[in-house]
Amino acid sequence: MATKVTMPQLGESVVEGTVGKWLVEEGDHVEADQPIVEIMTDKADTEVPSPVAGVVVSLKAKVDEVVAVGGELCIIDESAAAAGGSGGGGAADAGAEAAHDADAGKGGKAKADDGGKAGKPKANKGGAAKADEAGKGGQRSPSVRRLARELGVDLDDVSGSGDGGRITAADVRSAAESSEPAAGEGDETPSSPRQDRARGELTPPPAPEAPASAKTLTGVPASQPTSAFRPPPYVPRPGDEVVPFTRRRRIIADHMVYSKHTAPDVVTFAECDLDRTARLREANKARYQREGVSLTFLAFALAATARALREFPELNARVLDDAIVKLHDVNLGIAVDTEQGLVVPVIKNADELTVRGLARAVADTAERARDGKLTPDDLSGKTFSVSNPGRRGNTVGGAIISQPNVGILRLGTIQKRVVVVERDGEDMMVIHPVMWMALTYDHRAVDGVHANSFLYRVNEILEQGDFDV
Q: Fewer CB near the terminus (10 Å): N or C of the chain?
């Protein structure tokens, strides 16, 4: 029995994925849940497992091919699974030969083995492939392989500058830059789109004007503003660097434009005195560290946000065509910066977690995001987002709403400032840690009174240090 393996839904807003790398070949025997292909989306790179055990008889999608959700990736013959397990792979080999014979019947001839060794069994991929990889151009991490694919760089031609000959991202970018043609150099041989992106062509062919019904990368109608204004054309200048959009960067841009065109957003601000929360953090920080938990201000901000969302469900919602849905679960998306770009992993049921639980969740999701180990489930289901600028942030700034949410809270940098407090009936000037917060909300679903009350409540919880740690 043949099983079709299709492109899974890798996140609620993902409508397609790019085949990054096949982990199997036609004729390979696979087990159920064995990773067979690496799929790249704007959110994360994910390995898709085989749903059944059997023989891979046909790969339907090529590397770098974009496949829509539900589109066919490969076909696996289950009939060889049982015999393959008991007969030491004999049935699998037979299934592979049958698949190649079938391909030969359709295409006129079967593919010849590259080394003329069609009769020899394939080497074990778990060891030989890694040894081969280490011998060609040094060691490669998953993030380096992804970057090389995006820039069109052959890693076999790259010398690694890292420890033990490891290839770094800088090595890949340097190789991409060195392959760019000199100014004025002609190339009569047409290149592939992948090569053009790697070279950073300065004069791409003009794109045809999109019709009114055109779809954006996320499958949503693009509303093009009508205006007499047109920006001047780009004229290359010495020293300019053209950086082609990666697929993730392009889809993020598309999402941001869609959000600005869709949601009539409003930004409101609050200044938060963190003195009591800072004292609470300082009193418990060492104890948390002994337990392997980093007690950050972000954990307190998430706890305050989750509690306020329970009290003001208008902010924990989404907009339908003719209705507003107040969502039951409180799932907080937190923005994490990685080598491949910004991702927003989700902390599920954040309102049910303590400050300790949120601190653990933040550390875990951030680490897995930077290591490229997030799953589709880690990136789906957010109902509200919190953006943290980190140590190199700025005083205040409004963020763009992450659709389909109706709000996002952007935290500013914590700075020591002079503030006025009342003690024993007298005003006093003291130095406290202070943070600005900016709430961006969708005015289709949220009225100003609810938005202001929500932000006031978040601010109140943080200023009172109203946490159980």
A: N
